């Protein structure tokens, strides 16, 4: 398990002597053989600017940072893979904030790259290699020509072609889960927001938030164009927008309009679910799926990251309970971070939260953040750090009826039939 590092020009090397190390929170740790898997297809190796990789002398156990001029290397994993460790590094400039990505530990072993990760879902559907960019360009040309006045298609074309966002690409490919952003505003001030950051945050947002309010007609056109197969999903709440439920009136009118024409496919919302009354109205309009973003089931941790405006974690729980009671297939978009999510108190609180809200699915998502900034923001650990692998095992044992995955799923057959009954009503 040899150390992987890069030089100043971005060339990647494996060290001939030192073993690779990893991080759990702010602790440098040894990597475990049983946690390593070959680097998945679709993963990307990246250098970590202003860092030095840290390796271990296998004979003495001494931890050694490489000389200046080198930098640590991390892997960015495709959906379906949950990282178990961060790369082992020290910063050469402690004021520097790493770009907003989910860095995973990587080593060289048996003639290839390996990462500390767990396969938590089928990676094929969201493998970037399965998204033909030429096909996306054809789809963009076709739909923007068909709907020349629809600003949403113009906006999504930049997401698909510029950012190579897979969800917006699906919108133009007419497959799987497609995107329909609706909101330029938000009721949270997420520390790691990928679409809007305060000028003094030190982070650079990798995406630009939409800056207009679409019409019901624009929204309905996108939804109806995508909802043409029983397995299709159209989703409010994208990385290029704020909180979709702040535009509840638009969403409610659009769902009603679409469901008056077709009962095909599934309507999903990705939301923080803090606006309980708005969520209730959206659910009652005919919502099928709801994915709620959370980083913790503990108030102090949740509040530190999300900085909620006018709502609390109790509102989030209320929204989830109501949606589940109305037959909506509910899940959480669980933003996970090795050394934090696997703390004893975090695991216990999340297990109870899942049970109380009758969740059907936990979507494991690697948190895109600068590790030092995040660790400075949140409360310190109160109990033992059990490890990400152990955390996943506890979830699977304690929550046997809950799916552990990485992205939005079409409900099982019994819940799908319940959805059809809701549409008819």
UniProtKB/TrEMBL annotation:
Pfam (any one): Radical_SAM
CDD domains according to UniProt: Radical_SAM (cd01335)
Cofactor(s) the protein requires to work: [4Fe-4S] cluster
Superkingdom, taxonomy of origin: Bacteria
UniProt name for this protein: Radical SAM protein
Keywords: 4Fe-4S, Iron, Iron-sulfur, Metal-binding, S-adenosyl-L-methionine
InterPro entries: Aldolase_TIM (IPR013785), Organic_radical-activating (IPR034457), rSAM (IPR007197), rSAM_sf (IPR058240)
Species in which this protein is naturally found: Paenibacillus helianthi
Domain Radical SAM core: 181-350
């Amino acid at each position: 398990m040899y150390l992987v590092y890069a030089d100043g020009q971005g060339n990647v090397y494996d060290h001939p002597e030192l073993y690779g190390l990893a991080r759990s929170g702010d602790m440098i740790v040894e990597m475990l053989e049983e946690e390593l898997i070959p680097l998945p297809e679709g993963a990307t190796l990246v250098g970590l600017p202003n860092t030095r990789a840290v390796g271990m002398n296998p004979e003495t156990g001494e931890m050694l940072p490489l000389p200046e001029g080198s930098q640590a290397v991390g892997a960015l994993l495709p959906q379906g893979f949950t990282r178990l460790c961060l790369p082992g590094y020290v910063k050469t400039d402690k004021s520097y904030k790493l770009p907003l990505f989910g860095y995973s530990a990587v080593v060289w072993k048996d003639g290839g790259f390996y990462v500390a990760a767990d396969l938590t879902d089928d990676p094929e559907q969201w493998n970037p290699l399965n998204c033909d960019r030429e096909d996306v360009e054809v789809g963009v040309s076709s739909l923007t020509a068909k709907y020349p006045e629809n600003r949403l298609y113009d906006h999504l074309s930049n997401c698909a072609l510029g950012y190579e966002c897979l969800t917006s690409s699906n919108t133009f490919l007419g497959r799987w889960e497609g995107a329909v952003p609706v909101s330029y505003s938000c009721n949270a001030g997420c520390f790691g927001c990928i679409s809007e950051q305060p000028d003094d945050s030190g982070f650079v947002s990798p995406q630009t938030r939409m800056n207009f309010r679409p019409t019901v007609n624009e929204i309905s056109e996108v939804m109806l164009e995508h909802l043409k197969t029983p397995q299709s999903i159209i989703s409010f709440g994208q990385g290029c927008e704020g909180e979709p439920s702040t535009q509840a009136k638009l969403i409610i009118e659009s769902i009603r309009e679409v469901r008056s024409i077709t009962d095909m496919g599934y309507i999903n919302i990705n939301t923080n679910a803090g606006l309980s009354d708005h969520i209730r109205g959206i659910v009652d309009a005919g919502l099928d799926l709801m994915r709620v973003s959370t980083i913790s089931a503990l108030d102090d941790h949740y509040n530190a990251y999300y900085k909620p405006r006018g709502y609390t974690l109790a509102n989030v729980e209320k929204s989830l309970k109501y949606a589940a009671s109305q037959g909506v297939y509910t899940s959480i978009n669980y933003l996970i971070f090795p050394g934090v999510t696997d703390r004893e108190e975090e695991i216990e609180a999340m297990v109870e939260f899942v049970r109380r809200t009758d969740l059907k699915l936990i979507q494991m998502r690697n948190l895109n953040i600068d590790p030092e900034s995040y660790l400075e923001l949140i409360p310190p650990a109160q109990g033992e750090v059990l490890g990400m692998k152990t955390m996943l095992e506890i979830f699977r044992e304690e929550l046997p009826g809950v799916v552990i995955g990485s992205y939005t799923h079409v409900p099982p057959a019994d819940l799908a039939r319940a959805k059809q009954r809701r549409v008819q009503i």
